Structures are given as structure tokens and as C-alpha cells.
Amino acid sequence: MKRTVTRLADGRELIYFDRRDDADRSAADERPLPGRAAASELRYDPLLDEWVAVAAHRQTRTFLPSADDCPLCPSSPGRPTEIPSPEYEVVVFENRFPSYGDGVSGGRCEVMCFTSEHGRSFAELPPEQVQTVIEAWADRTAELSAFPGVEQVFCFENRGEAIGVTLHHPHGQIYGYPFVPPRTRRMLDVAGRHPGDLFAEVLAAEREEAVRVVAANELWTAFVPKAARWPYEVHVYPHRRVPDLPALDGAEREAFGALYLDLLSRLDRLFGMPLPYVSAWHQAPVRTDRDLAWLHLELFSVQRAPGKLKYLAGSESAMGAFVNDVSPEDAARRLREA
Questions:
Q1: What pLDDT, in 10s, does the model give residues 32-69?
Q2: What phi and psi values does residue 88 have, to the nearest 5 degrees?
Q3: Residue 106: CA count within 13 A, CB half-sphere
Q4: Boundaries of each Galactose-1-phosphate uridyl transferase N-terminal domain copy (predicted)?
Q5: Spatial separation of the C-alpha atoms in residues 135 and 142, rounded to whole Å
């Protein structure tokens, strides 16, 4: 894979990832951009022992532009964008409106564009393109993990306006958190108190019971968890314990891509529409509890039926006590049949 590092007009880093060694990425960003956004501020909540980022500059970020004004499409004559090249395969750049960044809050936020084609979705990418995305995820995880102050690297994709997406171009994000987020802390605290190997036991139980398994191959299993919180929620585990994406070998990366494309296609066929979803990689923290963690992906949708969304009610939003409208066994069956 060819990796080309360059800079945007305001100094933000941009990295092209290409399968072709002859890819020309020499185009420069000539936009008259203002200075970089002010850093966000981290504030501590002593009641919950959690950190909250205050990022007021994000109020001015781009919101649902037309396809003609998409900032993630390649640049063309008279229409410069965030990507100077007239075409690209996969590209990653520092977010212009970061939730976390240099200064008081530390950390780093990046945008990853999965393809230059505005109208495509991840499910429509060819397998070789998916492999480039996986290589880019692994590259960024390794590099951000080496940044001073980054405690966990989070690769994720939000898809669909119902989820809150503000740009329709197929893309994801990568957060280098300056702390270990609450969900990871709780998950690893539980694993540390468990007398056995918690993640291994969960995976083995789901594979043995099989009723909630959606798809599997020799190296990965995708299943609806027994206590799923969302109407359609699927967890994807490698069969081998690894802490993070860089630790996956070539066979595991290739096997994941095939399974993931199948899973995303099932989601879209479920209701005959592009399903809104969040797809989130859970990786080990950089410095703590790496021996307890088990890399896995969690994917969920707020769509509970055609024309019906799952909104968080008072009990869920205020107290974190979830009520699922769809039984996990029924969700898995529907996805298998999709």
C-alpha cells in the first residue's frame, strides 16, 4: 500500500492510501483558509467520574451540503475541497472542526473518506477497496496510539441523517481520545472482576447457542448480543484475542472485509432501504488493561421498523436503563433471512 502524507492550506495533515504505486498525490491545497479552530476544553464531571468536551467551534461546521458542495469529494477546477487531488482511493485528514485536539484538551480527530464516489455506501465498496480501508484503520490506530496524551483510538462510521450525520459522502471518523471513555472503562472493569475470560466466554456461548448468530466464517463471528440495547445490533468478534486493529494478521483482515460487506448488505435489505447505523471499533486502551481487551466491532441501528425509529425515552436517556422493542433472537433471524 502506498501512503502519501501532505498538508492542507491551514496546516492540517492529510494522508492518501493507495493500492497503486504510481498514484500521483502532488496536488496542493490552494484555498485561502482561516487559521485552525480553537481547541476544545475538557471538563471533569465529579459525580460520574467522566470527562466532557466543550467544543463551541463545532457550531459552525458544515451541515448537510448538496452533492455539488460536498467538502469530501475530490477537488475539481473552480471547486476546491478538503481533498486537493482530482481523485482518490482512501484518504484521512485532520478534522477541521475537531471535538478533541491540540491545546487544553489534547487528543486528535480525523476524517476518513472510504471512496471518492459521493453516491456510494460502504456496503457497495469492492473487496479490494475495503482492504485499503482496513489497512488505513490499522495505520491510524498505530500512529495515533504513539501520540503523547492519546489514551484510546476509536474508529467509527455514522451513516444516515437519522443517526445525526451532517455529510452524506461515505466517510468515517477516528478519535484519539485524551482519556479512556466511560464505556471502555466499564467493560474492562467488568472483565477484570470476572473469574474467567469474559470476552472468550461470550463469544463461545453465542457460537454454541447459534440462535443469534447472523453470519460467520473461519476467523470471525457476527451475532446479535443476548442483551442487545438497540432494535438491530450486531457485534463482530475475531476468533483470536487481539487488542487492536494493527494486531490482526493478513488473513483476519481479508476475512473481516468479506463478512462485513455481507453484514452491511443484509442491513440494507432488511427494510429495503439504506439503514442508518453506527459502526464502532472497540479497541484496547493504549496504556492500560490491554491484556483484558478483545478487539471487536459493534454495529447498531435506530431503525426498528419501516418508518419507525428507536428514540431514547426518559428512562434510557436519563437513567441509562434500555428497553429494546425487538427481541435479539428475532432480529438475528430477520438479518439471516435478509
A1: 999 887 888 999 999 999 999 999 989 988 999 999 99
A2: -160, 165
A3: 16
A4: 107-181
A5: 11
Q: Is 229 helix (H, G, I), strand (E, B) or coil?
A: coil
- pLDDT computed for residue 321 by the predictor: 97
**DSSP states along 50-119:** EEEEE-GGGGGS--S--GGG-TTSBPBTTB--SB-SSS-SEEEEE-SS-SSBTTTTB-EEEEEES-S-TT
Question: What pLDDT, on a 0 to 100 scale, did the predictor assign at position 265?
Answer: 98
Question: Which residue stretches of the chain have pLDDT < 50?
Answer: none
Element (H, E) at 305: strand 303-305
Is residue 243 within 8 A of residue 269, CB to CB? The reply is no
**Which residues are paired to 287 by β-bridges?**
none
Q: How far apart are CA 217 and CA 221, in angstroms?
A: 7
Starting from the edge strand earliest in sequence, which strands make up the sheet with 90-94, in order? 2-7, 13-18, 90-94, 108-113, 171-177, 152-159, 277-282, 296-301, 232-238, 220-223, 213-216
Element (H, E) at 279: strand 277-282
Q: How many CB atoms lie within 10 A of CB 77?
A: 6
171 as an active site residue: the answer is yes
Give the pLDDT confidence score for residue 37 in this predicted structure: 77
Please identify which of the residues 171, 235, 282, 296 carries the catalytic annotation. Answer: 171
Question: Which of 85-107 are b and which e, b meaning 16 or more Cβ less than 10 Å from the residue's Cβ?
Answer: beebbbbbbbbbbbbbbeeebbb
Q: What is the pLDDT of residue 104?
A: 59
Q: Burial-class residue 70 by CB neighbours within 10 Å (0-12, 13-18, 19+).
A: middle
Tell me which residue of 269, 253, 249 sits closest to 217, measured CA to CA: 253
User: Nearest Cα to 1, choosing from 69, 109, 92?
Assistant: 92
Q: For residue 107, what pLDDT is reported?
A: 93
Contact 224, 210 (CB under 8 A): no
